[in-house]
Design goal:
This protein is α/β, with parallel strands linked by helices. It has ten helices and five strands, in the order ααααβαβααβαβααβ. The structure holds adenosine-5'-diphosphate (ADP) and magnesium ion.
Length: 238
Amino acid sequence: MPELGTSGSAGGPGWATTQVYPTERLGLLVDRETEARDSRRLALRLKAAKLRQEASVEDIDFRTPRGLDRSVIMSLAQAGWVTAHHNLLVTGPTGAGKSFIGCALAHAAIRRGHTALYIRTPRLLADLALSRGDGRYVRRLAHLAKIGVLVLDDFLLTPPSIIEAKDLLEVIDDRSQVRSTLVISQLPVEAWHPALTAGDPTLADAILDRLVHDAHRLALKGSSMRRRQPPPEESSVA
Ligand SMILES: Nc1ncnc2c1ncn2[C@@H]1O[C@H](COP(=O)(O)OP(=O)(O)O)[C@@H](O)[C@H]1O
Ligand SMILES: [Mg+2]
C-alpha cells in the first residue's frame, strides 16, 4: 500500500521556490524598516547641517575654468578625508564658487553618514561671544566638538580680535585630529598667518598648526560665477 500524503503534496518539487517563508518575509520588512529609518536620519542630518546652498557634487560646473580638478572633487566626495579626520581648505576670489563647493562636499559627507554644520565664521564668533555672557559657552563648544564636518565659511573676512582668535582656537583645538573642519576663505592660505597675527602671533601659530596640518587644499581661480552671463549673440561683430 502506498504511503499516504507523499504524492502531490505541498512539499513537492517547485513549491518551495515560490514560497516566501515567514523568516524571509520578516527579513524584507526589516530591510524596509531600516531603509525608512536611514532616510529619516539622512533628512535629519541634512536639516541640522543648515547648508547655505542646495549644492550637490553632481551639480558642480567643471566647464568654467576655475582650477577645479574633477577627479580631486570626486575623490573628496567619497568623504575619506572626513573618516581620516583631515581638514579641507577652500580658497579663491569672491564668487568663484567656494561656498557652493564647500556645501556640495559637506552634503556628500552627510550622505555617507557623517554629521555636518555650516556656519559663517563672523556669525560663529558673535554666537560664542554671546554665549559667554549667558552661560552657554561650554555647552556650545561641546556641541561644536561633536560635529563630523564643521564648515567655517568666510574665514578671516575681517581680522579677529584676541578674544575671537582665542575662541577660534577653542573650536579648532577640540577638532584637531578627531574631527574634520572645512575652511572657506577669500584669502589664500599664505595670507592667513599675517591676518591672524593682528591678534597675537602665538595664537596664530596655534590655530594654523592645527588647521593646516593634514589638510587638503582647493584653490579656486577665475572670475565670479555670479557675474556669468550667456555670451552675447553678436559678440563676433566688432
Ligand atoms: N559649480 C557651480 N554650479 C552652479 N552654480 C554655481 C557653482 N558654483 C557657484 N555657483 C553659483 O554661483 C554663485 C557664487 O557662488 P558662491 O559659492 O557663493 O561663491 P563664493 O563663495 O566663492 O563667493 C552662487 O549663486 C552659486 O550658487
Ligand atoms: Mg561664499
